[in-house]
Amino acid sequence: MSAKISPQVIGPPDPPAEGIPRVTFEHWFFHKVDDLHFQLSEQSGEPVMLVKYAKNDVSMSFRGVKREFKITDDSPDGRMLDQVAKSLKFVKGLRIGDPLPREILTREASWDLSNRHRTIAHQRVSVQLVNWMTGGDQVITEPEELLQLADDPLIKKQVSRAFGEAAIKLGLGVDHKEEVVQHVQTLANELAYIEALRDRFRRVRTMEEKIQTLRRLYGRERSVLQVADQVARLGERAVSEFNAMFLEIDAQTGEILSVLRNLNSQIAYIRDKRDELYVKLSAWDDILAQWDNVVMKVIPGNPELLRRTYHFLAPRYMMVKEWVLMTKLIGAEQKKLGHVMRW
Prior knowledge:
Blueprint: E1 34-40, E2 47-53, E3 56-61, H1 62-68, H2 76-87, E4 94-95, H3 115-134, H4 143-149, H5 153-169, H6 177-217, H7 222-252, H8 256-261, H9 263-282, H10 285-292, H11 301-317, H12 320-329
Antiparallel strand pairs: 1-2, 1-4, 2-3
Helix pairs in contact: 3-4, 3-5, 3-6, 5-6, 6-7, 6-9, 7-9, 7-11
């Protein structure tokens, strides 16, 4: 008989609303300055504390804060600064009294899902289960196709049968089909976040397609084309990197019976990948918003958008030697790009 499915233990429950850990500090300084908040530095990507001092904005690194106010790493304030640093991967900024994000408390996501993404994920898992039962190899990747299957009576019948077959295979017994249903729902709820991120990634692919269009439109303007070529190459590299991440997740969660047998470890894996993708894609929000409204014509604003996109992509996707070469090619103006950022 096959080993039974592992118990459904996916982490501690949500704390009650009044008990959610919040940003708090004991040192007097944190309560005496105006407009104190925490965010990631636009220049270095490091967590910093920003305060108002004599009508000026002052930025202090967390290391500087600890050193200046003699805050040790193992003190309550030191541990809170570490928690805030971890939190800033998932929120734009934090102030005293703000709740810490669930990602660092319970490993759950702090952002909301749509019912659409939940349905897509459930249907994707259901199709995998039917394929296992029938020995089929039907691969459906398009969200709209998966949504259509949700109302297909034949698919519903096959899925119901597959739940029963899976219950037997997993050693639960034919009378415990409902347990498989619950485990599939739990898995689908986790994978729904991957589906939502897959949707966000489609904006990156759309941007990359628009860059290719601008390359053709500016084919006779050498200075613009030079930048556009580099941006296009970096855009392709970014798309390939994201594609590889989604393919890895799909491969890891593709063997549905193995996933259900090891649900706890699979959920931990999915959440690790969810957070990694979320952090990476969140960095794209501003540049993608600019490309959402771009006009596909030879107009003055487009060369500047290509340069801003280069500034965004180069430190993330260009090798150091390539970056130095490109800096020389496009002139002294580009030498202000700065240091290499590593994810």
